[in-house]
Amino acid sequence: AQNGPPDYLNGLNPEQRQAVETTEGPVLVLAGAGTGKTRVLTTRIAHILATGRAFPSQILAVTFTNKAAREMKQRIGLLVGEAVEGMPWLGTFHSIGVKIVRRHAELAGLRSDFSILDTDDVIRLIKQLIQAEGLDDKRWAPRTFAQMIDGWKNKGLGPEEISEGDARSFGNGRGRELYRAYQARLTTLNACDFGDLLLHPIRILRAHHDILAEYHKRFRYILVDEYQDTNTAQYMWLRLLAQRPRTSASTSVQPSAGRARDGAPGEVSPAPTASENKVNICCVGDDDQSIYGWRGAEVDNILRFEKDFPGATVIRLERNYRSTAHILGAAAHLIAHNEGRLGKTLFTDRPDPEDPKVNVHAAWDSDEEARAVGEEIEALQRRKHALNDIAILVRASFQMRAFEDRFIEIGLNYRVIGGPRFYERQEIRDAMAYLRVVANPGDDLAFERIVNVPKRGLGEAAIRQVHDTARALGVPMLQAAANLAESDELKPKPRAALREVAANFARWQDLLETTPHTELAETILEESGYTDMWKNDRAADAPTRLDNLKELIRSMEDYESLRAFLEHVALVMDTEQNEDLDAVSLMTLHSAKGLEFETVFLPGWEEGLFPHQRALDEGGRSGLEEERRLAYVGLTRAKKNLHIWFVSNRRIHGLWQSTMPSRFLDELPEAHVEVNESGSSFGGYGNPYGASRFDNLGSPSGGYAKRGDQGGGNQAFSNTYATPGWQRARQNRTEATSRNWGTRSGHAVERI
Ligand code: ATP
Ligand code: MG
Known about the structure:
Elements lengths: L13 H8 L5 E5 L5 H14 L8 E4 L3 H15 L9 E2 L1 H11 L11 E2 L2 H14 L9 H13 L9 H5 L6 H15 L1 E2 L3 H12 L1 H10 L2 E4 L7 H11 L2 H4 L32 E5 L14 H4 L1 H4 L4 E5 L7 H11 L22 E6 L2 H17 L7 E5 L5 H11 L3 E3 L9 H14 L4 H7 L9 H14 L3 H10 L5 H23 L2 H11 L2 H6 L6 H15 L5 H13 L9 E5 L8 E6 L10 H23 L2 E10 L1 E4 L2 E4 L4 H4 L6 E4 L13 H7 L11 H4 L1 H7 L3 H9 L1 H4 L16
Parallel strand pairs: 1-7, 1-8, 2-3, 2-6, 4-5, 6-7, 9-14, 9-17, 10-12, 10-13, 11-12, 13-14
Antiparallel strand pairs: 15-16
Helix pairs in contact: 1-2, 2-3, 4-9, 5-6, 5-8, 9-11, 15-27, 16-17, 18-19, 20-21, 21-22, 22-23, 29-31
The chain binds adenosine-5'-triphosphate and magnesium ion.
Magnesium ion (MG) binds next to helix 2.
């Protein structure tokens, strides 16, 4: 006996309410950023529970991250109280996958206590297999194969299902055998990799009709957030669970390539009566926010929904509750430059003349950019703006370095979301280990980290012997290594390797006093083979790591000696990331999906960085469109204040190079944008190097920096920032675009 709608429905607009209350049958909510898609899903779950349509255990709800799952659970709790207890099936595809595999482990050839391997484990295992096949693991990099396997699994393909071409593309045509051997090893180890958490459930559900029927019965309601970024395997999985036999006859689930081994893959068994099996699936998404194409996500899944689920109700939400009219106007104008999109309207009905326009600023270089952003944040802080409400979203992880250093310097709390902090990255730790040993030959921990990185044929036995010798003689491991290299206690190969390591370090130590430390660091990374190790690595993240290494060297320029730099990093590493602290969030654009902040900074809007050159080189037009969607995701994270930055210069290999403002800046409508000429909004930051320096940086091919000619002196510098300036630059852009970042093709774009 209720009067009016229950509380949780209050405040929803009619379309949102329809999406919440249409509980039966398939529903697709297709809508732009900030229109309440996630809120609709949450409320829908609350509604299903509150009206007794299902128990918490009968709802399958998929989010894109574990964090989003936790938040959703919390919100449902707020809406309906204790009823949310349980919700055992709310999580990411992977976390739900683990659960399914544990329940039926024996059907996947595992015991229910199987372990889940991390990337390092996987690579080690693959390496053993490659060697066991008698293949050269330098030519056939284990990391590359690990990514190939992951790619296949994301398409739902087991060893027998990959195409002949794929199978031949690795290990002298032995890709399929290796994949098969890898799966066999996993079984022996009673282990799964990440891809298996998607692949095993598909296998189990396909092969065992009774089990599938059991899940059909169990999951009365299925809900999926961020549907535009589901990959093929996740899609097949959803279809198996959601599609009932009566409707599936015409659309059997089939892997996108290859043939299945055991019988017809997609056929679903006859299930219980259709009436008790109505498909109550609700997916929400935004095709304009599909940003994981490079990782196998298929935006087509969203476009295909109505075909897959006949009679689906499609609901569009058009009112944006998140952002100001200026931010929305800017985002909508930008994304309209994409061709392959469904197109949709977004509006806000609270345009406020007080709302600030989208701010575009320019800085001399990335340190300047970090300094200015830091000042702006401090100013916000003085106005009692919570740091938790501020985010900095970067295109590439190396950009974080300047911000992290700056924030530590001024004592501003920050946290990095969705990845390690800059100095905690594997490649940075490795490089730092080399530098530490050079600065302090007694640093055994650092020595052990890199003595066999890159691989020098030093096995565990040899390293243990270095250890034992060091302990017996009471000397550092480096010294012990030098001793062992001259004795005959080791086999020739490890002995030669140790001799080289010892000689290298001795030479670098000699250089310490005479060579500028940045130069020395470059020499060390080159002569040790460390840089080459990543250059030869065909894995998708290798170029990102090389970028990070370059940034590391670049950042050393700010310190007067190697020792001063090492001290700085040690202090940086000492700062804790405390979850409860009020702190600025720093993350990549990819990690920012679904989030919102009062104030957002988007630094580094320069050609080559954003859009990223590698995305353009590899993906052409579709690569550019995915970059633009990423920009759209970035813009639409902001509620009120949005600051976009670009720098005019980047130091690359110690050389200054002028950069071009991103073409995305041109795609922002002037009506909603304010250009901060010479950055005066922050109390002015001038060109620290004087205008002449700027003039000297004119681009060889004419174009952007040449505009210095138009004014001369300081005038010229501030012209750089004005709208007409960068728009003129556009016209001359063609030849200049790939100049600074160009030619590194054949690599993948920055991945979260
Ligand atoms: P994205 O595409 O970025 O994931 P979304 O469509 O999932 O966005 P939500 O995050 O659900 O959007 O909602 C955006 C913001 O608008 C949230 O702060 C949410 O609480 C608020 N909001 C949504 N619907 C309403 C409403 N009917 N009344 C008031 N606020 C709302
Ligand atoms: Mg959302």
